[in-house]
Write a structure and sequence with these properties.
single chain, mainly beta
């Protein structure tokens, strides 16, 4: 029952989020990766990217943001069972391409490139 509710919440959240998304990069399809994790990453403005992820109980997942040169810029561990929405504000980063990776241990489950257009001030 809990899984059905979470799947429903994830589906509704995804549908509502994507219906309001306007960007020039498009929206990825939902990634159904090997370990049963569902995730989507999209860039809804020039300097804001959003990750929505639904992971099963007990899975230790990390979300990492890398610069073009491969430098780790941000890191977040996801330990609980739930649907999570993470927003990446890229406005304070130098102009360029960045990569968001969803990883389990050393295995990359999902990857998406996003673009920072520089400081919006």
């Amino acid at each position: 029952m809990k899984t059905q509710i979470l799947t429903f919440v994830f589906s509704v959240t995804f549908a509502l989020t994507t219906s309001f998304a306007t960007n020039n990069t498009g929206i990825d399809s939902i990634g159904n990766v090997k370990s049963g994790i569902e995730c989507v990453i999209f860039q809804n403005t020039d300097n804001l990217a959003t990750l929505i992820i639904d992971k099963p109980y007990g899975e230790k997942i990390a979300v990492k943001l890398y610069s073009e040169s491969g430098v780790l810029m941000s890191y977040k561990n996801l330990k609980r069972h739930d649907t999570v929405r993470i927003r990446f504000d890229l406005s304070n980063l130098p102009k360029g391409n960045y990569t968001i990776k969803v990883v389990k241990a050393d295995e990359e489950l999902y990857t998406k490139q996003v673009t920072a257009t520089g400081n919006s001030l």
